[in-house]
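The material for today's practical consists of a large collection of protein records. Backbone structure tokens are a discrete shorthand for how the chain folds in space. An example says more than a description, so a record of this kind follows:
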Amino acid sequence: MKKNFFIHQTSIIDNNVKIGRGTKIWHWCHLSEGSSVGKNCILGQNVFIGKNVKIGNNVKIQNNVSVYAGVLVKDDVFIGPSVVFTNVKFPRSKLNQKKFFLKTVLCKGSTIGANSTILCGIRIGKNSLVGAGSVVTKNVKSNTIVYGNPASQKLILNKK
């Protein structure tokens, strides 16, 4: 069968990974077992996709982003370079906390600016924008712009 997507030779793709038509996976990426990436996505250099993570269609993830277990990325999402996601509230090195992973959802059409940190258990609303360098500690409403540390609502976008 002919591949209908591109994977750079330096990338690692584990078993049982699904990759959609037209997707491009660039240098030094790692897609973990059971993960899926939709159609027409772009994963920049050094992107890590955790075990069983689901990435929608038309998603762009810029360089140096790790999308850990517990994060769900819906269609048409943009994730800027060096964005950080967490998946537990109180991380400890010697404790297995997989049962405490909290679900984080990036809704359709949302944008996360470069160097932002998204704490676990957060919902980023449809068509919202998180400004670069923000620390998101609570849910973001649909069609809004938030930024700062901690991020707060600054503007409501036109809902067209």
